[in-house]
Amino acid sequence: MRRTPLIAIGVVLVLLGAAALIWPQFSYTQRETLVDVGPVNVSADTKKSVPLSPILGGIALAGGVVLIVVGARKS
User: Fold this and answer.
1) Would you give the distance in Å from CA 14 to the centre of its chain?
2) Contact status, residue 47 vs residue 31, Cβ threshold 8 Å
3) What is the count of structural domains for the chain?
4) pTM of the model
5) Which of 24, 25, 26, 35 could connect to 51 by a Cys-Cys bridge, CB 3.0–4.6 Å?
6) Alpha carbons 54 and 17: distance in angstroms, whole number
7) Alpha-carbon Rg of the chain, whole angstroms?
8) What's the domain range around 18?
9) Using an 8 Å Cβ cutoff, are 10 and 64 in contact?
10) What does the alpha-carbon distance between residue 21 and residue 57 come to, in Å, rounded to a whole number?
11) DSSP state of 24
12) Are 71 and 6 a contacting pair, CB within 8 Å?
């Protein structure tokens, strides 16, 4: 049985978990239209941030390591 997908998923989880631990939040800019009257548009940019739990990052990191070990182990 090929276990390459397990290793690939494990690597992705390790990378996502490490990123969540390094950067505890990410932010993005959302453009909102305030007034739209005929040819006149008034918009504002709003900066929003999303916090990431370090527990979630640790679980993803540990799960990725487990998947890599299970995928690399020979049956």
Assistant:
1) 11
2) no
3) 1
4) 0.70
5) 25
6) 9
7) 21
8) 4-72
9) yes
10) 6
11) S
12) yes
Task: For residue 51, count CB atoms less than 10 angstroms from its CB and return exposed for 0-12, middle for 13-18, buried for 19 or more.
Answer: exposed
* Cα separation, 65 vs 2, whole angstroms: 18
Two structure tokens written together for 5: 């997908």
Place of tokens 């969540």: 20
Per-residue pLDDT, 17:
94
Tell me the pLDDT tens digit for each residue of 10-65: 999 999 999 999 998 989 999 998 888 888 889 999 999 999 889 999 999 999 99
The pair of structure tokens assigned to 48 is: 């929003």
Question: Can you tell me which residue has the tokens 């929003």?
Answer: 48
Helix (H, G, I), strand (E, B) or coil at 26: strand
